[in-house]
Specification:
mainly beta, 6 strands, single chain
Length: about 80
C-alpha cells in the first residue's frame, strides 16, 4: 500500500518508451511495468521515509539494483 510515482521520459534521439501499466495501477515488487530505451530516463518519486541505497548519478540496473528501503525494511 505504498504510493510511488514513476515518470518515463523519452530521450532526444530514440524517443522510445514501452509502458504496460496505466496511472493508478497497483504493481507488486519486482514486476516489470515497461521498458525505456536508448538514453531515455525514469524519474522516481518516493515517500520521504525511504532510506535510499543509491545516490544521484549512480548507474542502476532494472530488476537487480535496490533503490532504497521502506521504513518496514521492504526493498524498492
Amino acid at each position: 500500500g505504498v504510493r510511488i510515482g514513476v515518470v518515463q521520459i523519452a530521450g532526444l534521439i530514440a524517443r522510445r518508451i514501452i509502458c504496460r501499466v496505466s496511472e493508478n495501477d497497483a504493481v507488486t515488487a519486482g514486476r516489470r511495468f515497461g521498458m525505456i530505451c536508448f538514453g531515455s530516463r525514469v524519474d522516481l518519486y518516493l515517500p520521504e521515509d525511504v532510506r535510499l541505497s543509491v545516490s544521484a548519478g549512480d548507474k542502476v540496473s532494472a530488476g537487480s539494483t535496490v533503490i532504497g528501503r521502506l521504513a518496514d525494511d521492504r526493498n524498492l
